[in-house]
Design brief:
Blueprint lengths: L1 H24 L6 E5 L2 E2 L7 E2 L9 E9 L5 E2 L6 E4 L6 E4 L6 E2 L4 E8 L8 E10 L7 E10 L5 E5 L2 E3 L5 E3 L3 E2 L4 E9 L5 E2 L7 E4 L6 E5 L4 E2 L4 E8 L5 E9 L9 E10 L13 E4 L4 E9 L5 E9 L2 E9 L14 E6 L1 E7 L5 E8 L4 E8 L14 E4 L6 E8 L5 E8 L4 E8 L14 E4 L5 E8 L5 E7 L2 E7 L14 E4 L6 E8 L5 E7 L2 E7 L14 E4 L5 E10 L5 E9 L6 E7 L14 E4 L11 E4 L5 E7 L2 E7 L2
Parallel strand pairs: 3-11, 14-23, 15-23
Antiparallel strand pairs: 1-2, 1-4, 4-9, 5-8, 6-10, 7-9, 10-11, 12-13, 12-16, 16-21, 17-20, 18-22, 19-21, 22-23, 24-51, 25-26, 26-27, 27-28, 29-30, 30-31, 31-32, 33-34, 34-35, 35-36, 37-38, 38-39, 39-40, 41-42, 42-43, 43-44, 45-46, 46-47, 47-48, 49-50, 50-51
Length: 656
């Protein structure tokens, strides 16, 4: 009854003032509007939240009164902003007070302070806020405000030391290869004075948006976080295809003004270097032949079929293995026995696919006393080629005891170069052996087909190539440095190369070793291997000088991670001139535990479009994997890598 009696003269005053305004301004009328934090507060609204406060402190919330009309707006109440209700005494309007007259198109502000008292208890507190004015249809603007009193949680989320604001924050995952994962650890801090409860179900952190399925909660936070404490959670990005992926992370909680806590997450999926799902199982083919098997060389036939050479071991029985797969990774039943050939004793290390489709596999053979070079030639169907050597096999004693064939190369005239090292009076020397196409030793090369080079120490020949400009390149190591030698066609060192036919390259004073040679069409060549536990590549001019346009003065090293031993065992050139190096990475002092690939521009710069900063590692789910030993590029650019996973021969295919 009292309210009705008070409202009548107030409405009469509104009508009178409105009439004056119409007389003074030719019918122009005011139009009131109120906002908080840029959002409209409707007339007669309920539950408009303002900042809460603990006992003994206060919080301030600013409101804006706007005049959207064409005439001046007058605030006629006394006080201008009136607070009513059971908890009204906890709320006050503080200076600066709103202006009594608001011109058309203008605004004024006022601040509501919430200050709970010791006897007010805790929880949500309410008040009604009224503003009398000369807007004809909203002459008494009223709405309800609420604030939380007493102890309360206060939530914020950080990535590292960076705050991610609620609603407007965002974070980005590192570029991630399709098929692999990347993680970010976030921290939830409770800056309030009461326990923060995370109320989401079934997960404390939920993901929404078109790409939500590519983000998962890997390590959840606890359900509650005590006041002043923090907790972490881990989100995993697992791209299913290339491109930018976006989602929103939502954390439901009981912080009165931060529920829910939302922020944007995004990540870039990269297909280059990802496992090819069209090959084998998720890009991986493992072949179990009943022993311990490993792949040491890969070649791609003109029909797209894939040849893998490797070893098979069961105790004292060591055999050369040759397997052929179709383009999808299935063993080819038209080759050997069910796609596999194991007819030759010995340890294989290398393979050559001849122009007519026949296959050479090289390595070494234990004759009961020591090791000799051994080469086997197979027909296109996997049978030993009886026209080569003795029933398809050639065995060559080279040094005084242990001989190791590491690599082979084919000359344009069909002659075969086998390279490695051999014992000579308690030390090892570089060795080249040349065969005629039928497997007989070439008497016009070196000493009866064998060219050995003694440099006065322990020398290991690892890779060989026939240079397009003439001569035979042999790479390896001596005294923990890269060593490259060039021989003439008769097996003598070429004095026009380096210093007397020899080039030595030290990377940074540590232990360096060369493992492969990759020829460019312009006569330059790349030697890859390791330097002090990192991938190492060096590019040389045809003369043997380092190519200063490559990497840093001709050299590049790549580290796959701190405290890891990395080594590149093979290299290859893509059709676009980019350079691939492949090998392994391992914990210091441990077994190799992951395949490793790196890609570079033609200038030796890591290719940021490949994997993460030019690097890829692949764990084949075994703690006794070997590094990549074999590398080949298909005609469509897809990348084949071979090694061992557990006790099985492993071939992996990557997208280009």
């Amino acid at each position: 009854m009292k309210t009705a009696m008070r409202r009548v003269p107030f409405l009469l005053l509104i009508v009178a003032l409105a009439a004056c305004q119409m007389t003074d301004q030719g019918g122009d009328e005011p139009e009131i509007g109120i906002t908080k934090d840029g959002a409209e507060v409707p007339n007669w609204a309920s539950g408009i939240d303002i900042a809460g406060a603990e006992t003994g402190s206060f919080s301030d919330t600013v409101f804006t009164i706007e005049n959207h009309g064409a005439g001046a707006l007058y605030l006629t109440g006394t006080p201008t902003v009136e607070l009513l209700g059971y908890h009204a005494h906890l709320f006050t309007v503080v200076e600066p007070f709103p202006a009594a007259q608001i011109p058309a198109g203008s605004s004024t502000t006022f601040t509501v302070r919430f200050m709970p008292t010791p006897d007010s208890g805790s929880g949500t507190r309410f008040a009604s806020l009224g503003i009398r004015n000369t807007d004809l249809d909203e002459g008494e603007y009223q709405f309800e405000i609420t604030a939380v009193a007493g102890k309360a949680p206060e939530m914020e989320v950080k990535q590292g030391s960076t705050l991610i604001p609620n609603g407007s924050g965002s974070c980005s995952f590192s570029t991630t290869v399709v098929g692999l994962d990347s993680d970010i650890v976030f921290t939830i801090q409770n800056l309030g004075t009461d326990t923060l409860n995370l109320t989401g179900s079934p997960d404390a952190v939920a993901f929404t948006g078109a790409d939500a399925a590519q983000f998962t909660l890997q390590v959840p936070p606890p359900a509650s976080i005590q006041a002043g404490n923090s907790a972490t959670f881990t989100v995993r990005f697992s791209p299913q295809e290339g491109g930018i992926k976006n989602a929103t992370a939502t954390i439901a909680n009981d912080d009165a003004d931060e529920d829910p806590y939302d922020f944007a997450i995004s990540g870039l999926g990269r297909e280059a270097g990802s496992l090819d799902p069209a090959f084998g199982t998720g890009g991986i083919v493992k072949t179990d032949l009943g022993g311990t098997e490993s792949c040491v060389a890969i070649a791609v036939q003109t029909d797209g079929k894939i040849l893998a050479a490797g070893s098979h071991s069961t105790g004292l029985d060591q055999r050369m293995v040759l397997a052929r797969y179709d383009a999808s990774g299935n063993l080819d039943p038209g080759f050997g026995s069910g796609g596999v050939v194991m007819d030759t004793d010995g340890w294989p290390t290398c393979m050559l696919l001849l122009p007519d489709g026949r296959i050479l596999v090289g390595g070494y053979f234990n004759n009961g006393t020591d090791n000799d070079f051994r080469i086997a030639r197979y027909t296109t169907t996997g049978a030993l080629d009886a026209s080569f050597g003795s029933s398809g096999v050639v065995t060559t004693p080279v040094g005084s005891s242990g001989d190791y064939c590491s690599a082979m190369a084919l000359q344009p005239d069909g002659k075969i170069i086998a390279a490695g090292y051999a014992w000579a009076i308690y030390k090892r020397d570089f060795v080249l052996v040349r065969y005629d196409p039928d497997g007989s030793l070439d008497s016009g090369f070196g000493n009866g087909g064998i060219a050995a080079t003694d440099m006065g120490g322990e020398e290991f020949g690892r890779a060989v190539a026939v240079h397009p400009g003439g001569g035979i390149l042999l790479a390896g190591e001596k005294n923990m440095d890269f060593i490259i030698l060039r021989y003439t066609d008769n097996g003598s060192l070429d004095p026009g190369f380096g210093s007397g036919g020899v080039v030595t390259t030290d990377f940074r004073g540590g232990s360096d070793g060369a493992r492969s040679i990759c020829l460019q069409l312009d006569g330059r060549f790349i030697v890859s291997g390791y330097a002090s536990g990192d991938f190492a590549l060096a590019r040389y001019l045809a003369s043997g000088s380092l190519d200063a346009s490559f990497g840093s003065y001709g050299k590049v090293t790549t580290d796959f991670g701190a405290n890891k031993a990395d080594s590149a065992a093979a290299a290859a050139l893509q059709a676009d001139g980019k350079i691939l190096a492949a090998g392994g990475t391992e914990p210091s002092g441990g077994f190799y535990d992951a395949f490793a690939l790196a890609r570079y521009s033609s200038a030796g710069v890591p290719d940021a479009e490949f994997g993460y900063l030019g690097r890829i590692t692949t764990d084949l789910d075994s703690h006794i994997d070997t590094p990549i030993q074999a590398l080949a590029i298909q005609a469509d650019g897809r990348i084949l890598a071979g090694g061992r996973s557990g006790n099985d021969m492993a071939v992996v295919r990557y997208r280009p």
